Amino acid sequence: MGKKTDVWQGTLALMILKTLESMGAQHGYGIARRIEQTSGNQLLLNYGTLYPALLKLEQEGYVRSEWGTSDNNRRAKFYQLTRAGKKQVERETAEWNTTTAILARFLSPDEV
Amino acid sequence: MEHDDGDPGAVPLARRGVVVPILRAWLRRTFGLRPSDAELAAELQAHVDMHADDVVHTGVAADEARRRAVLDLGGVAATRESQRDAVRPCLESVVQDLRHAARILRRSPSFTLTAILAMTIGIGVTALVFSVVNALAFRPPAVADPAKVVFVQVEGERQTYPHSYPAYRDIAERNTVFDATVAYGFTGVPFETGSSTSRAYMSPVSGNYFRVFGLAPAMGRLIDDQDDRPGSPPVVVLSWDSWQADFQGQASAVGRTVRIGRVPHTVVGVAPKGFHGLEVTMRPRFWTPLRSYVGGYQHRRESHVVFVVGRLREGVSRDQAAANLNAITAALGREFPKTDAEYRVRVTDPGWLGDGFARPIQAFATGVLLLASLVLFTACANVATALAVHTLDRHREIAIRMSLGAGRFRLVRLVILEALILASLGGVLAIVLTRAGTEALSAWWLPIDVPTQVDVRPDWSVVLAAGAAVVLAVLTASVGPVRLMLRLQPNQAMKGGTGWALAGRVGRVRGALVGLQVSLCCVLVAAALVSAVGLRRAMHVPVGYDGNDLRFATLDFSAAGYAYDQTHRANAAQRALQAVRSLPGVTQVAFSSGAVPLGGNAPYQKVYPQAKLAQSASLPMALSYRVSEGFLETMGIPLLAGRTLAATDQAGQPYVAVVNQAFVRQVLETTAPIGHKFHLNALTGPTWEVVGVVPVGKYESISETPKPAIFLPVAQAGYDSIRLVARVPGARPQFLERLRQTLSTLDPGVPVLVDDSESASAWAFFPIRMAVVVLSSLAVVALLLAANGLYGAFAYVVASREREIGLRVALGAGSVRVLRGILGPVALVTAVGVGLGVGGALGLSQVLDRIVPLARPQDPIVLVLLIAVMGGVATLAMAAPAFRSLRVSPVVALKAE
Hints:
- In chain A, a hairpin with a 5-residue loop joins strand 2 (63-69) and strand 3.
- Chain A is 57% helix and 14% strand.
- The longest helix of chain A has 25 residues, at 83-107.
- Chain A has a three-stranded antiparallel β-sheet with strand order 1-3-2.
- Chain A has four helices and three strands.
- By secondary structure, chain A is of the alpha+beta class.
- In chain A, helix 1 (9-23) packs across helix 2 (28-38).
- In chain A, 36% of the residues are buried.
- In chain B, helix 19 crosses helix 28.
- By secondary structure, chain B is of the alpha+beta class.
- The longest helix of chain B is centred in the middle third of the chain and has 42 residues, at 499-540.
- Chain B is built from 31 helices and 23 strands.
- Chain A binds chain B through residues 1-2, 4, 27-29, 32-33, 46-48, 51-52, 55-56, 58-65, 70, 72, 74-77, 81-85, 87, and chain B through 1, 3, 5-6, 8, 10, 13-14, 21-22, 24-25, 28-29, 33-35, 39-40, 42-44, 46-47, 49-51, 53-54, 72-75, 78-79, 82-83, 86-87, 402, 408, 490.
């Protein structure tokens, strides 16, 4: 129940999509570890947050899933980007860059 | 699972935009395209396993690794539940939750019932009051393009002063601002349908009346210009209500002959349903052409008989209209200085015969509306308290559900659904209540002879708005506690003691809500008390005459078809006097022409005091009563100076007047009034000499300020209708009927009306009676709600502290101590609430003043009663729970956990 999830909800989808883009097909656990690692372990991602997000992405048609076998020989569900998902990564990345660029201007000290 | 989106052959996604995927996601979610529970479980299991694998790699035993993995990751069940929530078909789970909520409500029927009742009352009363206010004050008349219809109000102190017929003709012909100018009257007549005779109120109307107002007949035809020409056969148009009541709605009614004031009229048609004339309350039973009514007054500029309404020309403002009309009346004043001097008009809304009536009524209505909204707030606070307590009571259940993996969203939604079920039940009942209430009010007649009825229609937008307010209150009240609970640790909550972790916080909120109810209720009770005290005072206000043992009879010479001249009337009056004098029990009898104080409308007349003719100050007005000799004595009006009116004050003799003290002070401005002379209405008129002085009485309403009034000998001032007044000490109820019969036999053609002193002055007391009824019912409702709230809060405190009480009793605390500990906080809340309420009532004293002028909240008697009532109700509400607290057995209480 607690409030372990420190991932800002809106950004999680993009993180997942970007992870899948760079790693290819991956299971939920792998995605979680990867996101935690990439964040320098500053993000904690419990599965109560991750799986609903994955399911939502799947329902929106950005990822698709199929059962496969993991490195450790465990059966796991593997997620990968659909074509729409790839487009979505581009779109969201662009939007995110714009947003951060704007924010950066607000936050940085005046240069001019 | 479907994931054909990415299939190479599919339509390029980019073109589908964002809408399609979102729509598809929604469809899938709503209709259940989702992985099975088993699949979800398997996926989560895999996640845990993989996490455990990693932990094992760090050198931990496998079992311990699994345990840690689960701890790290959070409960599997809860996650599954939240995942399910994210994807469960909404319809399915909502239905499930609805059923669950209904079950919970059924399980606590008393809570459910009180909450629904509070909501019903809150919404219903507000909607009802607003509907009445809307009908009284703000609804335009049921005519075509009502915004352009304006009332031409005669300026002056007199509230409903009609125009003379010639003046109406002049205004109609000369004005350039109206498309059409309509005149109508309102009068009571004997009405014979052939099968029954009754007294009816009718409205004689100019021939353009129905055409200008764009009305179509329900049957037959309406009155037209042809009917209003001299020599046209007399016709009558029935109102829909009269057609139903007098003719049972038969089509054969049209063409029938009825007798109005003894004159046969042909029924030519029926007015449309729902049209009751222009006035909000006065409903004519039928309409006749104006010409026959005006009859003898056709050329008399001094007889003010018609009301005038105009339809504004396109693009003409009210100010322009008023300017144009006043130019005309000013010209009339120059042309006819004897009758039309100082003739000024104002352009106002139709509906109340001018704003003299409309403004106080609107002030009253707005004040009541304000108080009714307090009832709504009280109800909201009431329901909110009950729901908050109800939800808190379930903290253990909620804790269990949470620990079993219930999602937060589901829990909150469940509580919201519960609240919504309550609100919708309350709403449905409120609609029923509003419908029934408006129907009852529409059928209700005011306690006076004139047919006054208000067409009250339920205002559904208000029902909606009030309902929304209640729903909002309910939602805040139920979601707040749940959110508090969600922050709790489930295991703690289940242990039981948690009530306390919450009670501190929620207790404050609940205390505030109960205090709010008490203070709102206090304001309403104060209003009711003010009106009741006001009514009591009004009953005992000195009215300037001795009303006990007085009986009145009216001989209505003005009924259509009777053109009695002055001699006829004088003779008829004398015959009536003699007949009544010989009746057993009558000690004194006299009459007035037209009105008596507090009964009927006496005319205002302009006064020109001779001593002040040189001054050009604006002319004072005085109420004038034309009375027979012995009238002042019969009414019991004492003489202060000079002499009273005598039988010798006849037409040929010097004109004399008895005046009241207000006339002496305000008009003559002298200390020695006897012998002063003045003219009435016009300088050319006769000179009246003051011969006597009487004290100031009440003439038009109980709450009026002292008004100048004069009493003139009827023989010198002229006869109108005759209003007999007889003093009959200890008269039996049968006397009135005897009086009516005696007078009816004198001249069967003259309708006779009889009434006792109380009904004669009913209209004067009506506003304050009305205020008492309205405010008391609001106050009773508020009291019930507040008592309910207090009881609920107190019962909850006792129930939740049962263990503590048991412990105290076990440790030897006496009942006084126990009670003090428990009553203390509630009593404090009540006291603070009453304090705030008294403050609020004092703050509202301006509003109340407009409704009930004779009492104020700051009157000590009101304050004392207020505190007594509130204290009594609070005591009653607390009695049962207090009694219960004393009977808490220490054993039972200690065993409870």
